[in-house]
Design a protein that fits this description.
heterodimer; A: 202 residues; alpha/beta; Rossmann fold; 32% helix; disordered N terminus; B: 176 residues; six-stranded parallel sheet
């Protein structure tokens, strides 16, 4: 575990929230690209993310999907050894999985880099919605989620990570992603329901 | 490939006053940091000191997050004596983890035609990590020198380096 001084918890009370759900895409979840997710993601985490989104909509919290949408031959596929083609626009692999399908009124932001803020209109959208707090779910905790959370923090948003609605390719990477977010408040879906309402969490 | 050396958060508060993180491990890297800067000077690699310079009331100074540190214009915000900028070096003042956020770092590197950045300094899990990822996203090739960075704990340092798959992680002894 990291030393106590390294883990400074941000316990700010959150206001004007939006839920940001990262990379719930067919290639990444059904096709193992660019790397396979462990079975517990699909079995346990995906249904919880579905509940989180349902809750958010019920209490009128905006839902924003942040999704990889690459060009063909995006250099990211060959920049590093772990790279592989994924979520190319127009292939169908870049579509959101049916279990957490966007509903009318939700927002979708396409990205080409790890961070949902990089080269996208995410910041503009959130400003237009008057959002001050971002509540995160999705995958992978230690890459696209972490870098989007960090960018949100750098832009002055309060950031909240719903720990049991996030995951990585291993439990260890998931945990190290959470540990890296020392500037984020960590909650569970139950806490979300308690604080924001909704009521479908078991 | 044209390179630049980014010397990150090597100011008195971060290095000598343990603000906001304990910097004992980073202090042990000062001799290597001095060598890295000498190496860059000897090879005409531009040196950019990327360092925190906060207003006194910066929004990140909250009881939950961190105490005030590296206040613009204070002794704490000055680059440590051992690495004092020389004529020809460039200094970029930042207020967040990433050296690219809210600064002219990208503009400066573009003007120089830089394609690859070498990151040294601290801390691995904060400013190094988020500057490296922004460098990658901006299509610079980031390289981190393992023997010239550190964090408040070895675990934070090692786990971060293990997760930076988009970066080349090397050592000064390997490139010099």
């Amino acid at each position: 575990m990291p030393s106590k001084e390294a883990v400074i918890m941000c316990s700010k009370i959150s206001s004007k929230p939006a839920v940001v759900v990262v990379n719930m895409l067919k290639d990444m979840i059904l096709h193992g690209k660019p790397f396979p997710m462990p079975p517990e993601f699909q079995e346990q985490v995906v249904p919880r993310i579905g509940q989180l989104l349902e809750n958010a909509r019920k209490v009128k919290i905006p839902v924003v999907y942040v999704c990889d949408a690459h060009r063909q031959n995006d250099p990211e596929f060959t920049d590093f050894p772990a790279g592989a083609e994924h979520c190319v626009k127009g292939t169908g692999g870049e579509e959101i999985i049916s279990e957490v399908k966007p509903q009318p009124g939700d927002y979708i932001v396409e990205k080409r880099r790890f961070s949902g803020f990089f080269g996208t209109d995410l910041d503009i959208l959130l400003k237009e919605l008057g959002v001050e707090t971002l509540i995160f779910a999705g995958r992978p905790t230690n890459v696209c989620v972490l870098y989007t959370v960090a960018d949100a923090f750098q832009r002055g948003y309060s950031v909240v990570a719903v720990q049991d609605c996030l995951y990585s390719k291993t439990k260890e990477y998931h945990q190290s992603g959470l540990d890296a977010m020392f500037f984020a408040r960590k909650i569970t879906i139950e806490q979300f329901v308690r604080e924001y309402g909704g009521g479908v969490a078991k | 490939m044209k390179q630049a050396l980014l010397a990150i958060d090597l100011n008195n508060d971060h290095v000598y006053h343990d603000k906001p993180f304990n910097a004992e491990r980073l202090r042990s890297k000062i001799p290597n940091l001095v060598s890295a800067v000498q190496y860059a000077r000897a090879h005409d690699i531009p040196i950019v000191h990327v360092t925190c310079a906060h207003p006194p009331n910066d929004a990140i100074f909250t009881p939950e997050l961190c105490e005030p540190h590296a206040i613009r214009g204070s002794e704490g915000a000055e680059i440590i004596e051992e690495l004092k900028p020389r004529s020809g070096d460039y200094v970029v003042h930042k207020r967040r983890f990433s050296g690219f956020y809210g600064t002219d770092l990208d503009l400066y590197l573009r003007e120089l035609g830089v394609e690859s950045v070498i990151l040294v300094g601290g801390q691995t899990h904060t400013s190094i990590r988020y500057t490296a990822v922004d460098a990658y996203q901006l299509r610079y090739r980031p390289m981190i020198l393992r023997d010239c960075v550190d964090s408040c704990t070895q675990e934070f340092n090692d786990r971060t380096l293990d997760e930076l798959f988009f970066c080349k992680v090397s050592r000064l002894s390997e490139i010099a």
